[in-house]
Structures are given as structure tokens and as C-alpha cells.
Amino acid sequence: MKSSPIFLDTKPVAYVIGDGALAYSEKLLDSYPRIIVLVDENVEKHCLPVFREQLPNVNISEVISIRSGEEKKNLDQSVYIWNRLTQAKVDRDALLINLGGGVVSDIGGFVASTFKRGIRFVNYPTSLLGMVDAAIGGKTGVDFGNFKNQVGVFADPDIVVIDPIFLDTLEEKQWQSGFAEVMKYGLILDRELWRWLYGKHFKEIEDWNKIITRAARDKIDIVRHDFREKGIRKNLNYGHTIGHAFETYFLNTGNAVTHGQAIAAGMICEGWLSTEAYELEWKQLQEIVNMFDINFDRLPLSDAHIPELLQLMKQDKKVRGGRLNYSLLRKIGKAIHNIEVDSNLVIESMKFYINN
Amino acid sequence: MKSSPIFLDTKPVAYVIGDGALAYSEKLLDSYPRIIVLVDENVEKHCLPVFREQLPNVNISEVISIRSGEEKKNLDQSVYIWNRLTQAKVDRDALLINLGGGVVSDIGGFVASTFKRGIRFVNYPTSLLGMVDAAIGGKTGVDFGNFKNQVGVFADPDIVVIDPIFLDTLEEKQWQSGFAEVMKYGLILDRELWRWLYGKHFKEIEDWNKIITRAARDKIDIVRHDFREKGIRKNLNYGHTIGHAFETYFLNTGNAVTHGQAIAAGMICEGWLSTEAYELEWKQLQEIVNMFDINFDRLPLSDAHIPELLQLMKQDKKVRGGRLNYSLLRKIGKAIHNIEVDSNLVIESMKFYINN
Hints:
Two copies of one chain form a homodimer.
Chain A: E1 6-10, E2 13-17, H1 21-24, E3 35-40, H2 41-46, H3 48-54, E4 60-66, H4 75-87, E5 95-100, H5 102-114, E6 120-125, H6 128-134, E7 142-144, E8 147-151, E9 159-162, H7 172-189, H8 191-197, H9 208-225, H10 240-253, H11 259-276, H12 282-295, H13 306-313, E10 325-331, E11 334-340, H14 343-355
Helix pairs in contact in A: 4-5, 5-6, 6-7, 6-9, 7-8, 7-9, 7-11, 10-11, 10-13, 11-12, 11-14
């Protein structure tokens, strides 16, 4: 069966989404005089051959391979890539293709946007998280000084090509990680998507093409309306305010958890806050907790960790004038942002997650 | 006499220019909840006291002091500033004031634009080069891998405050360096300005307020029309294609010359190219060479350095598809860009500079 992906030409970014996107995208690369591909060692092994096979006429001038893993999303690897680009005498007309998961598109987008004050880049996400989230929306950057994405810029890729073909290369943990973001779209703005998912373990999902297309479009709609996160885009932060503290905590201990594990936990805490500090019904909270518990083990935390977690939250990029606002749920499928929450309630929400 | 500076509210940047600009600017800073000031050690000593005196009601939360000098415009100092901002728990509402010359505004603009994906910044240039050039136009960045401004972004400050009051703190060499850019505006687009300057050594200039206001407005006009340097802004590169190679060469040897010394030499070479490869009259070339020789000693170069200089030019950010285009003069007061020049002529132009 010949597949036909969706082509969305939303200025300044074009999207190609769904089965067949990879092959379809070849013609879109025609106009770039020189193409460099950024990968990590896993992607180089498992995905780059697929890319070459599906886009046989693309002439790759250089392949730059970095080390995989969130703990490698740092300035040292940026320096390595800037050096490689310099050595290869890459000029401003060149294109950087970020072929990989969120780490590759985050770091690659940052490096491209800052090399010679900006060369163009294109994202080919290979992980579920990349396809539904990281590759879309122009947030680029690296971790710095123990804080996630502390150094980076908002910068749009020219094109994002989302082809589920790469999902087969994913380890289970990465697959699970992206699934947390898919569930988030259901919770904050797409009740129908939530219904498709509800009650299922991610391994039971059959039509990933449909799920990914839906989730990616949910994200595209939001970032088109609010690229710089002044308003509605903040809804995407549901689960991330507390979730980022969890993620940073485990990253710093050397026992990194996936982004999905961290924000799944964050969404339980912030779900509880949505009930206690806002209007989410207790019954819907139960539904949310239930769904996350089907898909994720609880993180190994105890009440004793809470002070350190609160400390980490003070460095969140979302802090303004020293205060931290939350994106909470009004009900499943509807979120609201800029809700200030008393820090005692935040502590209680973590206790709820840890002890219930 | 009470001075009244010019206030230009050109979105997205506001400019305050001329005697009295510093005091005038105080009210513009009212809306920023937290202010951090970036300086180098010289500026901290000579200019920060003037700033505090003229803006007594501005509450400076942190002063970050970096090391001065073009050879310190690097990633290490950026890391130092990112660390200081992190330690001070600076959030996205904060403002970074870049008080200093081109190094401070280049590095400060880059660091601000990339910290937490961008905090706002304001430039208070203290050098002549900063006032008429570096602080205007949104080019930020650091040198990397022996190449000037290899890593950086286009990012506009909210406000640029240009007050000649700081000129008194300048060393002669810095003063001279900025004067090369002032002369350049005369050559590429402002024959009247050239006439004001012609025949004078920079120490003979009396009305700096008038000269700086004129030169700054010349630059503002260009960058407003072509922020990302797709067209007319390229005219500003007159003297810089060859000049940057000179600057990089001396920087790498450890005997750095000023930016002005390098581009003054570059403007003689590219003036010669304007005559040989384009339509500049020989008589006007003589006038140009004469004026630069009044103000600058020739750089200590010999024909033997030419191959290395050509090699450096291949890494210029202006290289596109492997080729380097020049901005040349049609006549004094009128430039043209995107002129391709045979590399033999470039070699000849350097020989002209070295031997005549």
C-alpha cells in the first residue's frame, strides 16, 4: 500500500507527518546546497541506514555523531559540533539535519541557530517523544549548571518530518517516555485522544500512525498560536513544573530517569493540585492516577527528598519575579495556566504521589 | 546648558543618542523588575561610577565583571556569565545591561539571548566603536576556534543608550579603532560625513556629539531596513572581508591589533579592489588611502603572509557555497554588495597595501 503522509505548510515551518513521510520529504531537501546530518551513536546504527535508504538522492556531506543520553545534552557536545562544523568549513547556506530523539533536536537546533549567527536546520525525530513533542515548537538548548535547558534559544526548523517508521528502533523505555507526553495532550486539550488511550498499556496501542498524527497536530496548533510561550503554550507545562524537579534530581544523582517517567510523576502531583487548588473532580484525578500507574512505576522517592526538590524548583525557567505559576487541569481535556499555588500544597502534592 | 538627546522609538529597539542620553534613559528602566549589569574591569573602574551617578534611582541587583579584550570574547567567559546568572537565580523577567565596548555588548547580548532561551538586554556603549557600530544592529556572539563571531545570534536589545560622556574614559587606541567605522559610514553611504572628517586626524575632531549622532543614525537606518543582512546591510562589510582576515591573523599570533586597525587596512585593500574590479575612480582611492594613512600606521605585514590570510578568509561567515563576495565602493558615499572578485585580484590588493 502506498502511504500518503500529511503535508502542513505552516509558515515558517513545514510539517510532513505519518507513514511515508520520510520518502515524501526527499524532494523538500532539493534546495539546500550542502547537507550535514547530526545523529547519536544509536541513531547512527539503527536509523541512519533507514534514512539513506528512503532518501537515496540526498547527498550527505558530513555525518556528525554525538553521544546519546539526556546527561550528554550539554555545552561540551555543542562545542564538539561547532568544532566539526568549523573544520568542515560549513557556510551559512548549509542545512543541519537533526536525525534523532529530543537530545539530538534540542542540541542540534541550538548549535545550528548559533553557528555563524544561524544556519538552517530540519528535524527528523526518531523517538516517540521527538515526534509528538521535542521536534515541534522551536525550543532548543542544552542543560547547564545542573539545570535543564538553561542555555538555549527559540528557533524554528525549516521542516519537521515525522515518520513512525523509526518507532521500531526504540527501546521500551524511550517508547514509554514519549507516551507520557501523548497522554498529556489528551489531558490538557484533547479528550477524544485521552479516550483512545484510556485503560491501555502503551504496548497495547495498535494504530500508532493515528495517535502520533493526532498528538503532533495538537502540539503544532498550540505552538503556532503562541510560539514564545506568553499564554496558551504554557498549558503544555502541565506536569512539568514538578516533573522537571524530579528529572533534575535524578539526573544529578547519576541515576537519570526518562523525561516521561519524571513528568508522569509530575502530572500525578499537579493533578492532585488541580483538585485541591482548582476545580478538577476527584473522580477524574483517580482516572488520571490510574492511567499513569498502568504505564509507569512510581519513582523511588520519600518525604525526605522534598526539601531538595523544592529547592530545584526555584531555578525553573518559569519562575517570574521569584514566583512559580502552575498549569493545571480544569477537567480532562481542558487546562489553565498561570495558577499560583501555595508551597505547602506543593509539598502535600508530592506526599500524595509518594505515599498513595 | 541642559542637553537634550535624541529619542528614536523604532520598534523593536528604542535609541537614546547624544549628550544627556545617560540621565534621560533612567526612566526607561523603570519597568524592569530586576537589573543585572555586565562590565569589564576597565569599565567597572571608569564608567560604572558615572552610570551610578547619572542614574541614581536604578537599583542594580548584581554587577558581573568579565575580563576585557577581544581575545577574551570567548565561550569561557560566556560560561562564567551563565554561571553567575544561575547562581543569582535570575529569572526571565530580568534585564541585563551591557555597559561597555563591543566585547561586552557582543558577549552580553549572546549570553542574554541564550539564558533560559532569552532574557532582555540593553546596551550602554562606552567606546566609540560601540556607540557607532557594535551596540547597534543585534549582532551578538563570541569568537570560537580562532574565528571571529563564529558562535552567536541575531538578537535585538530593548534599548541602546549612546552618550558621548564615556568617550573621555577611552584610551587613544580604542578611540582610533572606532574612528575607522565612522570613516566607513562616510565612504559607503554618507559623503557629507566624509567631508566633515576628511583631512583630519581623529584627535582634531571637536564636535564628537555631532559625529557620533550622525554615524549612529547611519547604522540604525541600514539595520532597520535589513536586520538579517540579506541585502543592503552587506554594504557595512566594506573593508571587513579582508579586514577580518587581518584581525584574525594578528589575534592568533598573540599580537592582537584593534578592529579599527584591521578594517582600516581592509578598506585600503577593498578600495583598491573597488578601483580595479569596479568603478571607483583612482583619484578617490588616493583620497581614501590618504585619510587612513593620516589616522593609522600600516600593519606589519609582508607578501609572505598572504597565503595564510587567504586561508583565513575561507572561513569567513560571508562565504556562501564556497565563494566570497565583496562589498565595494562605486564612489565615495556609495557602496554596492555581492561583487565577486577573482582571488588573484585579492592577492594584488594585499600587495598594494603592503608595498605602496
